[in-house]
Amino acid sequence: MSTKERIIQASIELFNRHGERAITTNHIAAHLGISPGNLYYHFKNKEDILRHIFMLYRQHLDTQFKPLQDDVEVLSQLTHYFDALFELMWNFHFFYDNMTDILARDAELKADYIQFQQRLFEQVKDIVLVLNNKGIIAIADEDAAELTHMLKLTVSFWTPYIKARRQSGELNRADIYQGLLKVITLFSAFATDAGREQLAALKQTYQQRQDNI
Amino acid sequence: MSTKERIIQASIELFNRHGERAITTNHIAAHLGISPGNLYYHFKNKEDILRHIFMLYRQHLDTQFKPLQDDVEVLSQLTHYFDALFELMWNFHFFYDNMTDILARDAELKADYIQFQQRLFEQVKDIVLVLNNKGIIAIADEDAAELTHMLKLTVSFWTPYIKARRQSGELNRADIYQGLLKVITLFSAFATDAGREQLAALKQTYQQRQDNI
DNA sequence: GTCTATAGTACGATAGAC
DNA sequence: GTCTATCGTACTATAGAC
């Protein structure tokens, strides 16, 4: 792995463990056993590192959140989405902790973030509408947008929410599964009788994964 | 107003406007036209200020979130709750932006926060259960806790969520109403046929207030 | 209770040698 | 590509005069 990549990976790890605010460029360099000067050879500044991490974030969602396909079973596609959400919430939770600050410091990153989230919103809303058309959920047109907002809000801020309820100790994988179950509950609240069973099966899948940790 | 109180009020105002991270003790003093030394005469440090603000936060919830009373109409009590939530989300939104950091820096504040949130969780869950018993919503026992988490999550993080969708400009009152409508949508998702009408009325109330801004 | 002045620290970032 | 050394800056917090 190149030094540049190692800096990215170490940054993600340290940001997630100690928080973005607490980790300085010197910490990152020290953690890798390289000099601060070397870090600054590879990155213009701390914001530059954050922009590269955001690119990984975006890339993950771009590759994993394709629209629902008609010829594949819904439940297996939903499972794929939830697996991707798990990775997202696990790998980038530091970002949601300090989102307002990080974006306030870097207007360019903020513009990119907003643009991406607007696109993502439409993609998630499409999924909601397809689930409606397939009879998994029954939701009024105006509520589809509301539900989409709530889904995004929950995925984004479940990790800060749970961290604020814990006296000490790090976030663990079981916490993420708890969050995914909240997302499933959101869908279930709008489920049809037929859809309720399928979502219950999905719920059971992730409850088992949580128990197996 | 005493200097101590003025410092508290100025801090809340500046934190909300520019973010807790961006505002230093010097900024607060300069904003009030007092010296940094004077500020430090009244408060031990920045964390001390934050603890006092948290006391106001707790006090607001303690006085406004009494349990549902049986002899008063439900809808008017819900309206009272939502009015209180509006004040909360409007006055303390800076806190949710940086919650993880603020709590990570101050173990004592974190302990107080956690204890308070645990109590608050039970209070909100009681409200959910009473609404269930009154036939406004119909929710399984296990889902009551899930809904309570989602209600708290939404109230806490709606403001950071909305800030991250806006290129520039401050949070405004209409944004808060949007968040309250999300909370109402959460209740509506579990509403009975009878409850749906009452919640629709509640929704209309806050949509009108939003339009009247 | 309030001021001025400043000590102390930590962080971001760069220059210049190898 | 990597290092050492360091500068400038900004912030927290305190000392001491009034």
From TrEMBL, chains A, B:
DNA-binding region: 24-43
Residue ranges occupied by any HTH tetR-type domain in the UniProt entry: 1-61
UniProt-listed InterPro entries: Homeodomain-like_sf, HTH-type_Tx_Regulator, HTH_TetR, TetR
The entry's keywords: DNA-binding
One Pfam family cited in the UniProt record for this chain: TetR_N
PANTHER family: ACREF/ENVCD OPERON REPRESSOR-RELATED, TRANSCRIPTIONAL REGULATORY PROTEIN
Record-given protein name: TetR/AcrR family transcriptional regulator
